[in-house]
Each structure stands twice: as C-alpha cells, then as structure tokens.
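Batch 3, record 17
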Amino acid sequence: MATTSPPGVGLLKGLGVTIKHLFKQPATQMYPKQRPDLPPRTRGVIALMDENCTVCMLCSRECPDWCIYIDSHKETVPPAKEGGRARTRNVLDRFAIDFSLCMYCGICVEVCPFDALWWSPEFEYAEYDMGKLLHEKDKLREWMDTVPAPPMLEEGAVAPAEVTDAIAKKEKELEAEAEKQREASAAAEAPKGKAADSGGGAPKKADVEVKGAGEIDQETFDKLIAEGKSERIARSKAKAAWVRKEKERLRAEQEAAGGDEDGDDAAPKPQAAKVEVEAGQIDQETYDKLIEEGKSERMARAKAKAAYVRKERARLTAEQDGAGSDGSADEPEAAAAEPAAEDAAADDAAADDEGADEAGDDEPAPKQKVADVHVEGTGEIDQETFDKLIAEGKSERIARSKAKAAWVRKEKQRLIDEGGDA
Amino acid sequence: MTDLVLDQAVTFAAQSASLLTFDSFVLSVAAKIVFALGLFFVVPLVGGYLEHKVMGRMQNRRGPVEAGPFGSLQLVADGIKFIQKEDVIPRAADKWVFAAAPGVALVPGMLIFLVIPLGPGVFALDLELGLFYALAISSISVLGILMGGWASANKFSLIGGLRAGGQLIAYELPLILAAITVAVQAGTLSLVGIVEAQSMFMLPGTDINVWYVFPQIVGFAIFFIAAMAELSRPPFDMPIADSELVFGYMTEYTGIKFAMFLLTEYGGMIIMSALMVVLYLGGWQLLPGVPLPGCDGAGGLFDCGWLGTLAGVGITIGKIMALVFVMVWLRVAYPRLREDQLQRMAWIVMVPLALLNLAVVTVAKVVF
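Prediction for the assembled complex:
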C-alpha cells in the first residue's frame, strides 16, 4: 500500500466525488411520463407485411423457440396466357408469433427472403394474460405501421440490384434502338445511290456512347440529388441521361440532314406496363365488393390493390394519349410510415424505366400523378383519421402514423386537384 | 408522590422559562407533550425526505418523485403502507419482548425532545441536568435493539443485536467525554445554558464571539463520529449490515413495528444533530455574535418577539438539516466498517483524543 498522499486525502476525495454527483443531472428516464429516447432500429416487436409473405416457412423453421405459427393453403392461379399452364400459389391463412416465447433474436427477420418480417421499435404490449401475447396476423400487420422507413444508403454504397438492373436494361434497349436506326438510315441511304459507308458515315449512337463514357447530365444529377438520392445513383442515372440526350441530339442532326424519319422512335406509345402507379393504394370499391362476397381481408386487399393499379394505369394511359406525349415515369417516393410503398417500388423497378426515363424527359411533365407530388411537413397528421382510429381502439402510436400517412395522401390529392384546376 | 415529583421538577428546572408553560398545569403538560410528539413525528420525516433526495441525487437518481409534490410525502405514504401490513411475530420468538422492543427503542427518542431547545423559549423543559438526561436516555435505545435481536429467535437478528451492543462499548465513552468537555467549558449541563454560554464566549484576549465548534473542533469530530456509530448509520451500520445479516435486528420485524424502528433511526438522526447544534454550533444563533431580530436578552438570544422566536426555530432546524445532509453524504461516500475496526478506532484514537481534548479545555478554562 505505497501511497504518496497523506492519510485522509482518500476520504476527502470520496466526499468530493459524491458531492459532484449531487449537482449532476440524474440519469433517470421518467419513462411512463416521457417516452424513452430509443434508437431508430430498436428491436421492440416483430411486424408482418403479410402481402410479402410467400409461406416459405423459413422463419418458422429457423426460429430457435419455435414461436412462429404459419398456416396456409394452395390456390390455383389460372394461366396468364391462353394455353398456358395453371400455377399454384400459397396463400397465407394464419401467421402468429407468440411473444411469450420469443427471445427477440431476430433470426426470423434476418432470414425472411421477401422482407415480410420487420423490426418495429414499439415495446408497450405487455399483457396481464400470457395468452394475449400471441399476436395473430392482423395484429402483426398493425405493427407494420410503426416500422420506420429503411435507412438511407451510405454514400458511395453499391446501388441496389434493381436499380443497376434497370439501368443496364435501358442501356441495352437504347443500343437495340440505335442498331435499328442504323439499319433504317442505311436502308434510306441506299436508294439515293450514295456510297453507303456505314463505318465512316454519320456518327452512330454506339460510337457516342463509347466516347462520352465519363460525362454526366448535370441537370439530371442536380435534380436527383435534390430529391435525396445518393450521389452514386444520381451519377449513374445522370450518365445514362447524358448518353440518351447525346443520342437524341445526334438523331436530330441526322434527321435535319434529311434522313428518313423513324416514326416509331419519335413518339413511342405508352404501354400499360410502362405506366408507374403508386403501390400500396387499394381500390375501395373492389375491396368492399370482395369483402361483401365473403373473401378474406387479405385477399380483398390484394385484389383491390391489383384493381387499383389496373384502373390507374388505364387512366394514366388515356391521359397520356390525350396529351400526346410520353409521361414521365415516376419514382415512387418512400412514405415514412409505409415501407410497403418502397417495397413495391423495388419489386416494380425491373419493369420500370425509372430515373433513366425520367431524366431523359426534358419537357415539363404535363400531368401530375399522386406519387409525383412532394408534400412538405412530415409531422402533420390528419385529425379526422386519428380520431376515428382512436375511437376504434387503436393505440395512439398506430393511429398517429396512419393519420400521418392519411394526411400526406390527402395533401397530395389536394395539390393534384389544384394543379388540375390551374 | 405528586408533590415530590413536582418539587423535583421545580428544583431541576433552570432559570429560563419555556413559552409552553401556562398557568394551568394540565394545559402546560398537554402543550409540552404535543410539542415533543409533534417534533418527533414531523422533523424526522423531513430529515428522511432529505436523505432520500440527497442520496438519490448523489447516486445519479432522482429519489422519490411520485408521492406529493416532488415526492415530499413519500415517507407518509410509506408509513401508511407499513400500518396496513400484516404484523407477523415468529412462532419461536419471545412474544412480549419482541413486541416491546420497538417501543423501548422509540420512546427515548421522544423523551429527548423534551429538553432540546429549538429557539428562544421554544422547548418543553430546561433541565439543569439537560445534557446528562439526553445522553442517559439516548443510550436506552440500544436496549430496545438488543431486546429485538434476542427475542426474534433468528441468528441474523441476534448477531445484529449483539453488534449493536458491542458498538455501544465503542462509541459511548468518546461521546460522553466529548460532551463533558462542552459542559466543562460552558460551566453548565443545561442545554439552554450551553447555548447562552456559547453566545457569551469570546476568544481569549479579544471580543470576537465564537461557537464551541472552533475551540473544540476535535471534540466536535469525535461527537459526530460517535453519534453516527450510535445511530448505526453507515459507515457504522454493522448491526444492520444488509449485505451480510439480511437486516440485522430488524430482520423479523414487519409492518408498524418495523416502521417504529425506522422512525427511531430517523428520529435519532434529528436528535443527535440537534444535540450537536446545541453543544457546538451555537443553537439558534445565526452567526457568532449576531443577535436575532427583536431579541434583547443575554447575547441577543432571549426575550424575543414572535419574529425572533420563529427565526430562531428556523435557524435551528436549518442547522439540524445541514448536519443530516452531512450524515447522508458520509453514508453515500463510505463503505461499511468492520465491528473490530470501529472498536480499534474508538479505543485507540477517539478515546485518547477526547481525553486530551478534555484536559486542554479544562486547563484553558482555568488559565483564561
């Protein structure tokens, strides 16, 4: 015990430490009165996005506690095309998690290949009766409304596969188009009797692409950055946009030079599949009808959703035909409380020309669509919806998030209506 | 018989009169009983609240927050809870001794409040032998603790009780030696007289009034440590020692009896703090040499109007709470000592120092 300080100093030091703590702010969290400040990815409860579930049973099998119960039946889907083969599909009947057994390891969430299971930060679902901790599908679906939006990609992160695939696909299409045009121009030149020197003639699109590999379209880039895209994505899209513009320019030059015009290229007809519709909405009419017919809520919801998408597409196509121009395919925005929308967006991304198309579209978009409208003010809620949900006995948190989503929806509608009037 | 008691009371009563003495004997007695009981049941609750809050904040907690404004009624709520609880007596326990023990521990605390002066005239009784009475009575509490420990028929209780008895041997002598020194310097055993003597005491050769804590800082430290040991307060809580003896002599007690033991502890803190205020810290004097407003008696401490009286009581309570704060502070800062460490410290350090203190003060008293 070699100590250099005189005896008693240690005692005074101890008093000093305690008196210092007297004037510090206590570490106590006044929990029931104040909600704890939890990290956004807190593992509170597991939510189920039942539309995404394919009944693959991976979660149930991986669960160390065996606390996930899944029932399903098979449904035959009629062939999509005449003469096709009918397919079977699993339909989820029951999905329950017994939170009295769950040990919150999160393996089910990790293992789910279709993003049907999510962590929600909600934690206030203690019960006096253990049986009530068995959360059935409906309840798990409700938790879904409390799941925060996925975190932003890190700067410099590899873009999601859907996005890169979409870009690659578009590039391939453009190449094919260029090939077609080359052939057409060659065919046009031939009758004029000129020496068709395809190698050294007018610059071809493929050549342009090679030459300008590093350039980007600044306008598109700025726009995407402003929309909150990561720099990487913005750059690659802007690059594609530049390539497309350049091709456009060259084509115009060629046309000006008196080449035969390719009518199909100038104004492509919008196809139903090309029209992007915000996912997540349902067609209320269809939904009500199906519910009346005694279908399960899930079925009704899914069908109503499909019906909505169909209708919306039809509407948009009609509009575009009327306007006579290619509407910009939109990027579905991620509503904070509805990862569903994002999800669906990811699924649709392959079929979607996405940013590439959007970026290439230089004239202002003639028509606004729901997802196009950006609504400011994420904190606002729709009081009516909120009151209704509270009256229905929903938890405040759920009511709030749904009301928030409702508010955004309404606001968008309002903006569109205003735009239509103007 | 009654005459004899009255005679003695008159004989031992000192010169200063209590504000609680009325013409009617019955009224006087009733007023004094209410005074002592009121003090005993209210001030310890304030001290206990202070302990909860200070201890909480020192441990990065908030302490009680729910019961009453800022949790101030927590101890009242606790008391109500204790009253509601079942009163369990172990089958093997010595029933009567077990039941009587909390009372034996509690009553001396009430009795001491009879002689403690809180302000000018604010006391029940000014005994000539006030200090002697207080020290004698306060030691009875240990008897209650020993009774409880023995009667519980529980080894933890027994060890706790015996430790309390053993502790008595350690702290009693230094405590009394330190108190005697004050009596020597003041020339009286009356607690009111000691306060008065302090207001008159000037540093030798000057006219600077100081309290006894300055000439007797060693005595004050010894009295403080011994008082903590007497109260079984941490770091001297070996009789309770909840990490080794469950809860010491209180292990088998529940409900209201347990509450009585707890009240004894909180009351003891107040009593010991009050004694230290009277003996060393100038009683109801705000600062040395500063008379209270409206007081024109000796040393500016007596014959006060209602304003001076209230101020005096407030000052005394404030000083008591400051000492309680220090006790809590020490409790939070230091770990528990072993019984033998206390004995060693008491007999090797505190008793010789107290004797030296007594000798020096006595010589100085004669010389100056």
